[in-house]
Predict the 3D structure of the following.
Amino acid sequence: MTAMPLSARADAIPEGDGLVVTLGGDWRITKPLPVWRTVCGNQKAGAVRIRVDGLERWDSSLVRFVYEMRCWCRGANASCDMAALPEPVRRLVGQLEEAQDKRLASDHSRNVFTTVGLAATDLWRQTREFANFVGECTLSAIGLIRRPGRFRWRDCFSEMQQCGAMAVPIVSLSSFLVGLTLAYTGALILRQFGGDIWVADIVGLSTLREMGAVMTGVVVAGRTGAAFAAQLGNMKAGEEIDALETLGIAPVDFLVLPRLVALTLMTPLLTMYANCLGIFGGMVVSASVLSIPPNAYWIETQSIIDLSDVSVSLIKSVVFGMLIAVAGCLRGLQAERSAAGVGRAATSAVVTSILLLIVADAVFAVLFNVLGL
Amino acid sequence: MNDNPQTAVQMPVPGAPPAAIGVENLECRYGDTVVLSGVSFAVQEGELFFVIGGSGCGKSTLLRHLIGLMKPARGSVSYFGENFTEAGFVARRDLLKTFGVLYQNAALWTSMTLGENVALPLEQYTTLDRRERDEIVSLKLAQVGLAGYEDYFPSELSGGMRKRAGLARALALDPRIVFLDEPSAGLDPVTSRKLDDLVLQIRRTLGTTMVIVSHELASIFALADRVIMLDHEARGIIAEGRPRELAAANDDPRVREFLTRGEEKA
């Protein structure tokens, strides 16, 4: 025996028809440890006796080693004498043996039918919740018309600044580049027929009727929809929403409506701005690559677009703004009360917003065709 | 009782093992605001040591400095004689294994089951295989009275159970020191008492040094071997000793008032 053993020691020496297991040294879970199977080798025994020799510090690793040894003894029908072990070690081995028999079932895995069934009921629940939420927002908006003085104008203006003015740089860049790309793509074909000037028609029409509103919607969904969900989710996790409810203040009035109004007002403004920048992008390409003078480009643009195209863009953008605000706020209010829940709410808000946006865009395409707009 | 607690550091006896925790002349700041200054104390191995004081006195700030979440503006913290404040990457990593922490809200990772929560430190710092890890996890959960709850998520548990699971995670690597930040916060008196019993039991079984940040008088009187009391205005330690002795005979009225809930005045 050494005075200061460096690490854990375990030896198994035959004694009569049994084994004497000598344990000693410093048992630390973070250090290399003896393994019972190696210590025991192929030896057989009818009885195992533990001897302690120079046991310094010990922790769970010793408890686990003795537990493994006892499992082996049970398998080999051998008795196990651990009287020599310190009392706390014996108590912990007993606790571990009890715990191993006591694992409570909490099965989170499901078969395919249960999964499909749960997904279907979840989809139905989500649809109902969305419809309920839209209803609540509508009632809240009617309340706003009746009592405009009670509306949180200050919050609304602050949100308008956040989702409107602060979004100008990213909207500028994206819409300018989309206009530029449209002009290049259009020019590829039109040049073959000598119809370079019609690039203005392609850029003007597609920007106003489609790309301006959709691109702005996507940017706003990613930027503001996610922010709404994260803000509200965080407030829910911090019991701030509960505090509002116990005060008798509807979270929809207090938190959702200002955001809904702000985004419904700001998305059309951003879209109009994006339309201008898109047309400007096309103009830059035409002037620099196709040698079309800006005034000719502008006259051609004016000849193809009219007020109905502008109104199409406006109507779409108002609806897109509403949908993004509703999706963002709903996902935030539905968030689980945890950090992971807030993250999932933000992701889900963006996915829902963009999905609703595409569906709404398709509905508008059919509707405007029928109306002849 | 030392009348000048600011200098009440236990001087090392030559040849004696170094203190489990040694804090010397610690200064804690938030920007330019000094929260604590000239804080020195030592915690001996196996001791149940309490950091007490009113709200806003810097208890949690001190704890964050002890466990390395904040860097001291001045002074040092050492564990078993090894300087933690100035330690390099490898030495710091080794010292981090010396202690476990139970956070105020348990801070369990919500996306993982209790079993996975307790197993993560084992995966990180040991070479145990999966079966061996599972056995240690079972043992740790059994030690805190949560045997069988391996597959439960933190959200499926009550506040008291979450605290106990947090303690199981703090004990995963069998640290020599465990820090507990306001363990009774948010718990009812009975659950809180059970947690106190658990702390005592763990100390008895494993000889773990416990440092508890608390202002729960019942826990302080039931558990503490020794306490230090911090004060917001003094920005440091205003008393150090056994809680009952401090409550009965400390010269500082702030200390007596705190430990008797101001009832002595009335």
User: Anything to note?
Assistant: Chain B touches chain A through 30 residues (CB under 8 Å). Residues 189-206 of chain B form the longest helix (18 residues).
